[in-house]
């Protein structure tokens, strides 16, 4: 049986307006979408030092009772242990397929977001460094930004992305969107009638890409080429976030800039 969900459950992320970056915003929104789909209320708390508060050093993380859990995968497992699951209705083949698509999103979309933030020189100078270091005084703001940049670039080297051009990265994003678009087809969700954690993950990344102002629109244009994916984002926004915005005002705030619901 499902355990009662505490009323004071909280999700922590960086400051919304001035600090959080595309990839962390996407990851946070994916977790919020997952919890909304499970009908588990959560309060979003923004902290400048959220990344350093997290047990894994990554955001978002949730604080439920006396437990602290970070990132979507472990949060899904934690929620499942409490008796709430979105993918129980899937058979083993479907579960394996869902995992494969989630890997694809993490390997392609999340990595592309990190590449854009930390490896594209114009974006780094104009957006990433000013935002990432914004809560801290000089020179700490620059030191922390360069430290993070070095860490991400080392990861890109390890996975073979360091030598890629921006065009190649955008092509990877397009291929990922093409695969997702084909899998979704005309269904409301990836596995037909009910959302799963894959829907939450895809929504988190695509919605954030569509509504985040970057140096150019090249990244969001890749997603906009697939009308079923933009319709999917609109559908989840309307169903799970509109009218729930007293706590999770992420979408309300960002939509005012560039709403999908025009």
From TrEMBL:
CDD domains membership: GST_C_Metaxin2 (cd03211), GST_N_Metaxin2 (cd03079)
Any one of the GO BP annotations: mitochondrion organization
Domain Mitochondrial outer membrane transport complex Sam37/metaxin N-terminal: 28-148
Compartment(s) where it occurs, according to its Swiss-Prot or TrEMBL record: Mitochondrion outer membrane
Domain Metaxin glutathione S-transferase: 174-236
GO CC field: SAM complex
Coarse class of the protein's main subcellular location: mitochondrion
InterPro entries: Glutathione-S-Trfase_C_sf (IPR036282), Glutathione_S-Trfase (IPR040079), Metaxin_GST (IPR033468), Mito_Protein_Transport_Metaxin (IPR050931), Sam37/metaxin_N (IPR019564)
Pfam families: GST_C_6, Tom37
Keywords for the protein's UniProt record, in alphabetical order: Acetylation, Membrane, Mitochondrion, Mitochondrion outer membrane, Protein transport, Transport
Record text on subunit structure and interactions: Interacts with MTX1/metaxin-1. Associates with the mitochondrial contact site and cristae organizing system (MICOS) complex, composed of at least MICOS10/MIC10, CHCHD3/MIC19, CHCHD6/MIC25, APOOL/MIC27, IMMT/MIC60, APOO/MIC23/MIC26 and QIL1/MIC13. This complex was also known under the names MINOS or MitOS complex. The MICOS complex associates with mitochondrial outer membrane proteins SAMM50, MTX1 and MTX2 (together described as components of the mitochondrial outer membrane sorting assembly machinery (SAM) complex) and DNAJC11, mitochondrial inner membrane protein TMEM11 and with HSPA9.
Its job: Involved in transport of proteins into the mitochondrion.
Family: Belongs to the metaxin family.
Name this polypeptide is given: Metaxin-2
């Amino acid at each position: 049986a499902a355990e009662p969900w505490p009323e004071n459950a909280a999700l922590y992320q960086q400051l919304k307006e001035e600090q959080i970056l595309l990839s962390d915003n996407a990851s946070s929104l994916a977790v919020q979408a997952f919890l909304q789909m499970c009908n588990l209320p959560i309060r979003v708390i923004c902290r400048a030092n959220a990344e350093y508060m997290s047990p894994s050093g990554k955001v978002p993380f949730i604080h439920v009772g006396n437990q602290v859990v970070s990132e979507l995968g472990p949060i899904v497992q934690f929620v499942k242990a409490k008796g709430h699951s979105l993918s129980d209705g899937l058979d083993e083949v479907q579960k394996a397929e869902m995992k494969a698509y989630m890997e694809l999103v993490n390997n392609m979309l999340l990595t592309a977001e990190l590449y854009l933030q930390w490896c594209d020189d114009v974006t780094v100078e104009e957006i990433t460094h000013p935002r990432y270091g914004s809560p801290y005084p000089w020179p700490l703001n620059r030191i922390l930004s360069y430290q993070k940049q070095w860490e991400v670039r080392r990861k890109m080297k390890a996975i073979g992305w360091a030598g890629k051009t921006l065009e190649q990265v955008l092509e990877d994003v397009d291929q990922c969107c093409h695969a997702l678009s084909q899998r979704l087809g005309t269904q409301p969700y990836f596995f037909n009638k009910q959302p799963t954690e894959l829907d939450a993950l895809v929504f988190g990344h695509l919605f954030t890409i569509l509504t985040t102002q970057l140096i150019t629109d090249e990244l969001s244009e890749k997603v906009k080429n697939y009308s079923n994916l933009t319709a999917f984002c609109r559908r989840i926004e309307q169903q799970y976030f509109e009218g729930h915005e007293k706590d999770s005002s992420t979408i309300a705030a960002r939509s005012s800039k560039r709403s999908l619901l025009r």
